[in-house]
Amino acid sequence: MPLVTMKQVMADSLKRALDPKEDPKERYAVGAFNFSTIPEMVGIVEGARSKSSPVILMLSLGALKYIGSLELVADTAKGIARQYPEVPIVLHLDHATDLEMIKHAVVVGFTNVMIDASQEPYEVNIEKSKEIADFAHKHSPRGLDGCSVEAELGMLAGHEDNIVVSEEDAGKAYTDPKLVPRFVDETGIDALAVAIGTAHGFYKAAPKIRFDLLKEIREVTGVPLVLHGGTGVPEEDFKKCVEMGMSKINVGTGLKMVYTDAVREAIRTLPETEYDPRKIVGPGRKAIADEIAQKSVLFNCAGKSEAILKSLY
Ligand SMILES: [Zn+2]
Question: Fewest CB within 10 angstroms: 200, 282, 300, 304, which?
Answer without folding.
Answer: 282
